[in-house]
Amino acid sequence: MPRVLVVDDESDVHYSFERLFARKGIEILSATSGEEALECVDSDHIDLVLMDIRMSGLSGLETLKRLKDRHPKIPVIIMTAYGSTQTAIESMKFGAYDYILKPFDVRKLESLVEQALSLSRTMHQVVHFPLAGHLPDRGEGIVGKSEPMQEVYKQIGQVAPSNVTVLLTGERGTGKELVARAIYHHSRRAHKPFLPINCAAIPVDLLESELFGHEKGAFTGAHYRRIGKLEQSNGGTVFLDEIGDMPLPTQAKLLRFLQDQTFERLGGAETIRVDVRLIVATNRDLGRLMADGRFRPDLFDRLNVVRIHLPPLRERKEDIPLLVDYFLQRFRDELGRNVRGLSRSALQRLMAYHWPGNVRELENRLKRAVVLTRSGTLTPEDLFRDPDESLELPAAGDAREKIRRHIREIFRTLNTSPSAEAWLPLLEKEAIVEALRLTGGNQSQAARLLGINRNTLRNKIRAFGLRQPGS
Ligand SMILES: Nc1ncnc2c1ncn2[C@@H]1O[C@H](COP(=O)(O)OP(=O)(O)OP(=O)(O)O)[C@@H](O)[C@H]1O
Ligand SMILES: [Mg+2]
What we know:
471 residues; alpha/beta; Rossmann fold; 4 domains; five-stranded parallel sheet; 47% helix; 14% strand
């Protein structure tokens, strides 16, 4: 059960937190001063701290500094009343995870706590890999004994302790994120923070300020200064996922950062220097993006110091039985279902399949099978429920799946982005343009891809003032 320490000199705050989080299976501990908070994190296991910035005695900011000094990996969310917003913003320079205004927007608070707890878990749950020849029984690990995976382990072992930038490539679901975390856990920065940023999940225009921060008034709507992730994770590791989706202007800034570890906040004049290790990943073909002028070759050279390529599962099928054992063990524990194993024909089927979604697909198929199976032994039908899931997917189908995934991603961003309202029309337009591009301007196909009808699409094309090829 996750444990959250709430630090506030007003006691009714503790009570409302208990009421809010108890039913979510989160344990709330209380401290009424900075001193008490420090004692608590030193002696108890705490996953997350929520702290008022304004307290009598030791100030919130001072408490934060001391806490981060002693426990850099515990995320701290600052609570602030309207008048002390400035201090809350500055607190992010000292590694606060985020801040939230009082009185609370309960949904925002819940989602912030959830995100911070998940990050805390990521930082604390060590990802093992079998360099020494075996994995511990519990916890997360990178599984596989095949030759290409042995090569990966060797590379992780070599690069982890140094501060060198690492580029992870490989198809979707091959374990890039897992390897990024393994590198972090086995690096000299393992006791410092780790911050993942997904370049594809953040609207293009927000990414730059997410990374580098901005000054008040840098653009319309920039009412406050913002401290970027690089500044926030000083001393630690930043994982830039889906780097292939980074827009060119942001790439230029990142290049400069890689050259001299400095940057300016958007709209700011002050040059900021931080010490951050970068691990980056992409499932896109950077060579192709460079040829298309969408990725800077000079940035690529800087990133490509050490490159670890994750092999697709279809090229290391001998790992499938190991992965099956590993996931079944996990799901038995997690889901409390007593599944003994696979039938012979089910295993044969897994070995024959071509795994476009790689390990993630295997994990998902097994999980679904464990949930749905009626017997203790998984059959081919438990794993492949749709009779259309042929053993050999034609190339055309593969391409179609890629397009679908891309479109789904755009729409998912639409629905999960924190400030979705503002970005909705832009993203919607982008999705439509992309769909039209992918279908060569065929409106019926594009509409189907987007899951809307053709008239709606036509209206939107008109509303956005998009020009159609040939019209
Ligand atoms: N070798 C492995 N051993 C155990 N689990 C693995 C392995 N590779 C991947 N996984 C699991 O598969 C899932 C997908 O892995 P991960 O998120 O690291 O892939 P990815 O390469 O980042 O994919 P994407 O490009 O789609 O983001 C995760 O749940 C991860 O734990
Ligand atoms: Mg990933």
